[in-house]
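Quick one:
INPUT:
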């Protein structure tokens, strides 16, 4: 089976660096005024900027709206690796 068929849809739409819509979101890991961390179908997405806000979260659709001054969008596997290690350790010591 083709690897692309196994991956669920994920899309980012960014308007004027001030409004973004992200689909394919599994979880909002953390957010504050300078950084939003989302777990998406394509990995962990880190959004950095100023005066950032999660203005809408639709869990059943996996959509997140973000407003503020968006400076950077970066995919990272480090957060997911860290969480997997923590889950493994917690399972070992139960």
């Amino acid at each position: 089976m083709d690897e692309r068929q196994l991956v669920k849809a994920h899309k980012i739409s960014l308007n004027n660096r001030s409004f973004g819509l992200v689909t394919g979101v599994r979880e909002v890991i953390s957010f504050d005024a300078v950084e939003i961390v989302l777990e998406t179908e394509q990995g962990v997405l880190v959004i950095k900027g100023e005066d950032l806000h999660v203005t809408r979260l639709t869990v059943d659709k996996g959509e997140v709206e973000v407003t503020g001054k968006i400076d950077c969008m970066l995919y990272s596997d480090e957060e997911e690796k860290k969480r997997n290690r923590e889950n493994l350790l917690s399972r070992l010591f139960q």
